[in-house]
Design goal:
Layout (H helix, E strand, L loop, with lengths): L2 H49 L4 H6 L3 H21 L8 E2 L2 E2 L21 H16 L5
Antiparallel strand pairs: 1-2
């Protein structure tokens, strides 16, 4: 396979991953946004409580377990999103288990024999599957 054909194939694969990641992020963010609205409401409520010089912990104790579950689910979905967002699209170069960094302390990407960056396919597939599974396990708001 020529370098050009290989580059086209890799570009196509990278594009496929970008679309998959985007689709999963949109789906999970749609779930998260419902919880985020609850979190924003609670934040405004706590600020109001503080402005009236009341104890926020006492006021929060008045909320039902359902509200606290909404908060927990929102944070869980945020963590799920972060895990997917921080999964590199391309493999990082490692030596003895340590990520190689350039003179500016920026991680160096692993490359193949042709000098092309290597897709992080195994980690991406695993993270996409994990994201879908974890997000599906959280009950809708």
């Amino acid at each position: 396979m020529s370098k050009l054909e290989q580059a086209r194939k890799q570009l196509s694969q990278a594009e496929d991953y970008a679309f998959d990641i985007n689709d999963v992020l949109k789906s999970v963010y749609g779930q998260f946004d419902k919880y985020f609205e609850h979190l924003k409401y609670l934040d405004r409520h706590i600020e109001e409580v503080r402005s009236r010089r009341l104890d926020p912990q006492v006021e929060m104790a008045k909320f039902s377990d359902t509200i606290l579950q909404l908060i927990d689910n929102g944070y869980a979905l945020a963590a799920i999103l972060v895990d997917l967002i921080t999964t590199p699209l391309f493999k990082l170069k490692e030596v003895n288990g340590e990520v190689v960094k350039d003179k500016n302390n920026v991680p160096v990407m692993a490359t193949d024999a042709d000098g092309s960056m290597i897709l992080n396919a195994v980690a991406l597939d695993q993270q996409l599957a994990e994201t879908r599974t974890k997000a599906a396990a959280i009950n809708p708001a």
